[in-house]
Amino acid sequence: MKVLIAKFSAWSYEDFRRSQHPEYVAIRNIISRNPQDEFVLVGEGYEFKHFRRDGIEFYNIKAGYGFNYLFSSLLKFELATLLRPSAIVVMGSINLLPFGLSRNISRTRLIPVFTSEIEYEVRRMPRPFQVIFRTLFRTVLSQSPKVLTLSKKIRRELVDQYRIDPSKITIYRYELSDTFHPQDSKNIKAALNPDGPVVLTLCRISPEKGLEFLIEAAKDIINKVPNVRIVMKGSSKDQRYKEKLTRLIEKNRLNDHIIFLDFSPYSEVPKFLSASDVFVLPSISEGLPTVVLEAMATGIPIVATNVGGVPDIVEDGINGLLVSPRRPSALAEAVVRLLLDPSLREHLREKGFETVQKVKENDIEELIAKFLS
Fold first, then answer.
1. 22, 1, 108, 59 alpha-carbon torsion, rounded to 10°
2. 311-368 residue pLDDT tens
3. Under a CB-based contact definition with an 8 Å cutoff, are residues 187 and 268 in contact?
4. Which pTM was predicted?
5. Helix 239-251 crosses helix 211-224 at what angle (to 10 degrees)?
6. 175: which DSSP letter?
7. Is 288 strand, coil or helix?
8. How many whole angstroms separate alpha carbon 121 and alpha carbon 110?
9. What gap in Å lies between CA 73 and CA 98, rounded to an integer?
10. How many CB atoms are closer than 10 A to CB 75?
11. Mind giving me the DSSP string for 207-257?
12. In the predicted model, what is the mean pLDDT of the chain?
């Protein structure tokens, strides 16, 4: 059986083999549990790439937004139609339509896996296509015997907006790597800000992460904690958004207080978390961000926005602080509160450790393996 697995970031052979990111681990486990099957892995990158390693086909299709989404979707549709896989595992809502429609030709088994809020992605499309997309989206989902989602919020979207039978929906969760625990990061801390606290956000540099609101909040944070350094770490496929953030930093004269760090190997993430005093996630849309659990496991107190699956994990005042999205003043107030209150930071650390221990996971690899058998 030929199985196509599609995700919305680029494939590299090095990351596929070595990364301990939960998504990579899950996909490697799916492949190892089904050695009799042939696998094709499809992702998105800056340009089209195709290579073959260890009997696995890798494709990266140039990412597209707005009207470019239609072109990239057409390429995905054509690829799936030509390859004619027996099963397609679709990770992320932006991939569902092209691969879901291809199943009507190839009669393949479709396994949708939702990792982010659906409506946020739909609203990024050209307005004339949104109604068409929602209709086709509903049709494709209705043909799938099972749907996997990362959070309760996405489950509600599927039921309320797309009228999917709740009994078809299973909530899953990735298993955390055991590398996430408190550790010595003095060297990284000294490099980031030797004379003051570090506020870290670690995510894709993309619009749904709401980083402009953290930049706006920085002005108030610095007024209360002048020696703070805010670190935004992550990769970006959206260069225009990153340029927008850079201009905003320069306009507000925050260059000495806010720095960007590029994406680094996943194995280094625990060290950067441990070097931080507060972790912030200012998103305006989320699925269920694994990085929140990773920060908790590393012992870093959290400020996050009350969106998507975040409240599935974070309880305001119990194991983190929740604020409304798009509100820089509320974000600043929560960050300052944590920076100036050591006892609150310690309380949230302890409760964060407890949360990580209590989290129950449905094994996504086992769920998908059942569908493939």
1. 50
2. 999 999 999 999 999 999 999 999 999 999 999 999 999 999 999 988 766 778 888 8
3. no
4. 0.90
5. 20
6. P
7. coil
8. 20
9. 5
10. 16
11. GGG-HHHHHHHHHHHHHHSTT-EEEEE---S-HHHHHHHHHHHHHTT-TTT
12. 91
Instruction: Say how far apart CA 145 and CA 260 lie, in whole Å.
Output: 43
Closest CA to 167 of 188, 146, 185: 146
Contact status, residue 158 vs residue 147, Cβ threshold 8 Å: yes
DSSP conformation class of 316: B
Q: Do the beta carbons of residue 72 and residue 62 sit within 8 Å?
A: yes
d(CA 89, CA 85): 10
C-alpha–C-alpha distance, residues 190 and 3, integer Å: 47
Hey, what are 121's tokens?
């992605």
pLDDT of 69 strictly over 80? no
Q: Please give the pLDDT value at position 54.
A: 93
Structure tokens at 288: 């269920």
Q: How do residues 237-282 score in pLDDT, each as one tens digit?
A: 778 899 999 999 999 999 999 999 988 888 899 999 999 999 999 9
Strand order across the beta sheet in which 258-261 lies: 258-261, 229-233, 198-202, 278-281, 302-305, 321-323
Task: Determine contact, residues 34/5, Cβ cutoff 8 Å.
Answer: no
Helices (H), 3-126: 13-18, 22-33, 68-83, 93-106, 118-123
Which domains, and CATH codes, for the chain? Answer: 2-171 (3.40.50.2000), 186-358 (3.40.50.2000)
Amino acid identity, position 273: L
Burial of 131 (0-12, 13-18, 19+ CB in 10 A): exposed
Residues 6+ away with beta carbon under 8 Å from 308: 116, 117, 151, 153, 154, 283, 285, 286, 287, 288, 289
Q: Which residue type, as a one-letter code, is found at position 117? A: E
> What is the pairing mode between strands 198-202 and 278-281?
parallel
Going by the DSSP 8-state scheme, the letter that residue 12 receives in this structure is -
Structure tokens at 171: 């909530």
Give the whole-number percent of the chain exceeding pLDDT 90.
66
Binning pLDDT at 50, 70 and 90, where does residue 303 land?
A: very high
